[in-house]
């Protein structure tokens, strides 16, 4: 009995998807619910599981094909035995390490399963044996950065020493020791198409720059009170809630309080109308191998600190594993992005259209500041608010940042609501 494998129903806002890579080839045995192929949309990578156990009889589309909901991707022969000479995973064949024994095949399957889609493409393009790359992700999952770091380390292997010159003449001059241009390592270039996510990010960023009147205001925050609270309660917080008390929960709650006071910062433009959102769905930017995505914390104003920390941790893990859903990435009213985790001291973030504002966090740095006439050292952070000046006046933007600053420098304000 043959069973068709179809493209799953795509979200309403997504018209099509791109077939990224097949994990099985015709003739390979498949187990029920085993991932057969990855489909990339504008925001997420969808896995297509096998609807039944059997043998993959036919593949209808090659990698890179654009498909739509309901299209037949492959055909499975249910309860059939694996065809003789079934191929080992294509990823190892490309690396020159095709399995020749059942034990090798099992290892190959295990290694291929730990490759992210982006890592798999880099491995195939550079003919790398994935078994030689150490994975830094959960359960040894290999990311694109792991493969890039492996290639960089490999390329950095020292070359031969400069040969000595004739007796009494010293070493050969550097210019003379260099090989002919044709013998040097090729100055290679690679041209690869943008992923669906990267293309969508580019489109949204350009759209924001060309359709909104963007302006950025800055302030700085003394994080002494926040750091003292974290130091005082971090152990009991983690013991009770099973998650660490981070900075994002403080910033999320502070932004929610500020959004309540300044509704235009939480609004959006729809044609000639301003839509004031009476709920606070705050997006938190997460960096992944595929690019930046923004999962949304629904009703952030009523979430507890523990709820926020758990949600952000869960979003980050699933975003990097490619298992986050489209619904979790849509519908935000405001965004927070933290360039400080990468060392950024100051930046001007771009609004996540159709939202009207975004808060940028930056690196915490000890700086000398004057308090009550005395020069003291405090942990300071610059914060930035980029906003659409069509509906948000400078006064509201500045006072929004002041409110965030006050909530963080005196967290008790968030408890008593002032």
Describe the protein in words.
The protein is an alpha+beta fold. The chain has helices at residues 90-94, 102-113, 117-126, 144-155, 174-177, 196-211, 224-241, 248-261, 305-321, 394-409, 412-416, and strands spanning 2-6, 17-22, 29-30, 35-40, 45-49, 54-59, 66-67, 72-78, 214-222, 268-270, 273-275, 282-284, 286-288, 291-293, 296-297, 334-338, 357-361, 365-371, 374-388. The protein folds into two domains: 2-153, OB fold (Dihydrolipoamide Acetyltransferase, E2P), CATH 2.40.50.100; 213-416, Chloramphenicol acetyltransferase-like domain (Chloramphenicol Acetyltransferase, 2-Layer Sandwich).
Helix and strand topology:
Blueprint: E1 2-6, E2 17-22, E3 29-30, E4 35-40, E5 45-49, E6 54-59, E7 66-67, E8 72-78, H1 90-94, H2 102-113, H3 117-126, H4 144-155, H5 174-177, H6 196-211, E9 214-222, H7 224-241, H8 248-261, E10 268-270, E11 273-275, E12 282-284, E13 286-288, E14 291-293, E15 296-297, H9 305-321, E16 334-338, E17 357-361, E18 365-371, E19 374-388, H10 394-409, H11 412-416
Parallel strand pairs: 12-16, 16-17
Antiparallel strand pairs: 1-8, 2-4, 2-7, 3-6, 4-5, 6-8, 9-19, 10-11, 12-15, 13-14, 17-19, 18-19
Helix pairs in contact: 3-4, 8-9, 8-10
Key phrases:
418 residues; globular; 2 domains; four-stranded antiparallel sheet; OB fold (Dihydrolipoamide Acetyltransferase, E2P)
Summed up, the helix count is 11
Estimated radius of gyration = 27 Å
Determine the structural class based on helices, strands and strand pairing. alpha+beta
Which percent band covers the strand fraction?
15-25%
Question: How many domains would you count in the coordinates?
Answer: 2
CATH class of the largest domain: Alpha Beta
Question: pLDDT average, as an integer?
Answer: 81
The shape is globular
Order of helices and strands: EEEEEEEEHHHHHHEHHEEEEEEHEEEEHH
CATH architecture of the largest domain: 2-Layer Sandwich
CATH fold-type name of the largest domain: Chloramphenicol Acetyltransferase
For the report, how would you describe the main beta sheet?
A: 7 strands, mixed
In terms of per-residue confidence, which ranges show pLDDT below 50 for 5 or more consecutive residues?
Answer: 81-102
- Kindly state the number of beta strands: 19
Distance between the termini: 68 Å
In quaternary terms, these chains amount to: single chain
Percent range for helical residues? 25-40%
Could you give me the name of the CATH homologous superfamily of the largest domain? Chloramphenicol acetyltransferase-like domain
